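USER: Study each token:
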Amino acid sequence: MHILSDAQFQQLIHALDTARTALEASQRIELDLTTSKEKVVRTTAVQKSHGKTRKSGGKRGVSVLDEGKVLEIKRQLAAGGKSVAKIAKDFGVHVTTVNCIKWGKTWKHVQLQQEVTA
């Protein structure tokens, strides 16, 4: 058993509080990506940690899609004739990614011209 001085004990408590705060912050950022504010926080954290700039829309710094590709996906979805799985394969993304675009869960700011005027 070790006996700590008051100063050592206070340093330990401070270190644990700092670690707890950092852990809570990282869990909030990783798990709560539903609001634009949290996405901005996550984007900033990724840019600082990796020193890279990113294209908009990606959550992990490795965005496969850009606004032009998303616009084309939306055009193909609106035109019909192609399955979601085929579109996903053509663009090299998961089916869920295309479905999220289709349902308006992601890339909401990219709209087809008829959607804007409607």
